[in-house]
Amino acid sequence: MTTPSSTVPESSGPEPTSHRNHPDLSDRPIPWLGPLLRRLHFYAGILIGPFILIAALTGAAYAISPTLEKAIYADELSVPATDDRLPLADQITAANTVIGGSDATLSAVGPAPEPGDTTRVMYDDPSLGESESRAIFVDPATAEVVGDLTVYGTSGALPLRTWIDQMHRSLHLGDVGRIYSELAASWLGIVAAAGLVLWILRARRTRKPAAMLRPSRKHKGLRRTFSWHASVGVWAAIGMLFLSATGITWSQFGGENVTKLRAALSWDTPAVSTQIDTVTNTGGHAHHGNSAEAADPSEARSVIDPADFDMMLSMARGVGIDSGTVEILPPEDEGSAWVVQEIKRSWPTQVDAVAFDPDSMEVTDRVDFSDYGVAAKLARWGVDLHMGTLFGLANQVVLFALAIGIASMVVWGYVMWWQRRPRRGPVTRFGSAPPRGALVEAPCWGVAAVVLVAIGIGVFLPLVGISLVAFVVIDVLLELRARRRGRARTAS
């Protein structure tokens, strides 16, 4: 529940100072926890709120981008539906004609999943960026080329969705811009957890906790704003924690630690091996691992017969690769295998993959989704849910609503900060932070727990650790300034 103002308002007037009129200053049975969380919530909202706001708005745009993509690129994605299909060889030949004598090399083919869909013939193009491919869209019934676009990643995102994705990920600023999204993802979960605990503490002291689940219509000003912020926040808390946890996996620094943790716990996602050795050539089963590095991919792929794609697809169907949405990857070099993989990320998930020796035409390796461990399956589902592909349009609508809710809570937080400003005293233009000194009231074990948790989170999520130090420095500077002003007023 992102907010620059986490002190629970009791009225729209000046902030009460008595314990009786301001019950939030006495959280029981741990009187120091509430004030500490409110102060953390406040500073996170003030300083990290803008990053979360941008991430939420760009995330909302990304949530609906698959639907926008279908409408904007309808000419490339859709053709008259028919059950008649030409061989992939004819479709690839048509695409090769468009490519001509360019430096692009054939890298994958995605047969049309359903009648009315187009086939994608993809090429590695040295003029494109990382993870980008040139896709030629072909009518499977006529072999007519209907589009030529750049696609991104394994999801095959088209230019609009790619632009929104890069805006959400890095503000189009490369690795430097990714700092913003990592700050937003890391702190989103922290402020959501802190806000949820604060809501529970307040609900325990109210006579009608159920009333806190919906915005208040009878109050005005600060109390109304707070009721919207708190009630929307408690409903959105689980979604915010989920987006934070899955978003961190894409981050630069925290994401690297997540990868190391998964490797240490053997939670890696298994990958089909394209390595061909003496074991696989005799019909054995290779160990799952990384693909072999291509010595000269362009040379290896330039001699591929388009008819081989039909043969590989037929062989894959014969060994249980039955999803309509598949991708066929030719060998990267002479020591690599063909791969046919399912890329259907909606429910039920179909991501089985099989590798074939190009000489013996035997299966050299295979990875089925059923081979995934529990952690790998949860990671797959989590990523797809975060991207809005697991449950289709319903998934996208929920993500859009959640993102707008998060953005609204940031705005309400800043509004509360403004509404809590003193009515008297023009020196202070905004609401004050929750009082200091929460840890002074804490027992030794509480201080130790807070320090250990802060260090642990700071090490695992480095940007959180750095920003926590920044919060402390800013807080100390503000305290010193306040003391100087107090002494100056006393002297005058």
What does this protein structure show overall?
Helix 1 (33-63) packs across helix 13 (392-419) and helix 14 crosses helix 15. The chain folds into three domains: 23-63 and 171-260 and 392-491, no CATH class; 78-157, Roll (Nuclear Transport Factor 2, Chain: A), CATH 3.10.450; 270-371, no CATH class. The protein has a four-stranded antiparallel sheet with strand order 1-2-3-4. Strands 5-6-7-8 form a four-stranded antiparallel sheet, covered by helices on one side. The chain starts with 32 loop residues before the first helix and ends with a helix. The model is unreliable at 1-28 and 278-295 (pLDDT under 50). The protein has helices spanning 33-63, 65-72, 74-77, 88-99, 159-170, 174-205, 221-248, 253-264, 278-281, 297-302, 307-318, 374-387, 392-419, 444-460, 462-491, and strands at 105-110, 119-124, 132-138, 145-152, 326-329, 338-342, 353-356, 363-367. Helix content is 51%, strand content 9%. It is α+β, with helices and mostly antiparallel strands. The longest helix has 32 residues, at 174-205.
**Outline type:** elongated
The biggest beta sheet reads: 4 strands, antiparallel
Beta-strand portion reads 5-15%
Q: Tell me the Rg in angstroms.
A: 28 Å
Number of strands: 8
Question: In angstroms, what separates the terminal alpha carbons?
Answer: 43 Å
- Lateral strand order in the biggest sheet: 1-2-3-4
What low-confidence regions span 5 or more consecutive residues with pLDDT below 50? Answer: 1-28, 278-295
The quaternary organization reads as single chain
The average pLDDT is: 87
Q: How many distinct domains?
A: 3
Number of helices: 15
